[in-house]
Amino acid sequence: MSEKSSDLVSNRRAFHDYEIMDTMEAGIVLQGTEIKSLRANGGSLQEAYVRVFDHEVWLIGCTIAPYRYGNVHNHEDKRERKLLLHKREIALLKSSSQEKGLSIIPIAMYFKNGRIKLRIALAKGKKLHDKRHAIRERDEKKRMDQTLKNYGV
Q: β-strand 81-84 against 43-44: which pairing, if any?
């Protein structure tokens, strides 16, 4: 799945480091100043990951910068945030994450019908040679596109 232009925050590095198996959409519990900060592009998913504790799903390590005009009511920037999913989706994530080598990673935060949603993915880590192969393919494609453009095809 590719990155949307309407994403507030995206984790582009995830597509390089992981092989995405399955994606799903989750709601996220936020405070008022967090939403305002995200509207001003004040977030990062770079070091974030998702964990399932009991029957709840949590986003850990996500940074949402403090809102500039938040004064004493401002939020903590690296707090754990609860994700909202159906029971069957939580059960699927819990069973899948217990398999060897599978992780749950956040891919993007975006607006949908006035609410902020989080796209999460069940992913498998890539080995170094897989990353090199992906880079080589991307470079070859770029070179071919450039050649076709130069010859006017």
A: unpaired
CATH pick for 7-126 out of 2.40.280.10, 3.40.50.300, 3.30.565.10, 3.40.190.290: 2.40.280.10
Is 104 within 8 Å of 120 (Cβ atoms)? yes
User: What residue segments make up the domains of the chain, in order of their start?
Assistant: 7-126
Considering the entire predicted model, what is its pTM?
0.76
Structure tokens at 52: 């399932």
Can you tell me the mean pLDDT for 128-148?
Answer: 84
Model confidence pLDDT, tens digit, residues 57-100: 999 999 888 887 777 778 788 889 999 999 999 999 988 888 77
Per-residue three-class SS string for 22-68: EEEEEEECCCHHHHHHHHCCCEECCCCEEEEECCEEEEECCEECCCC
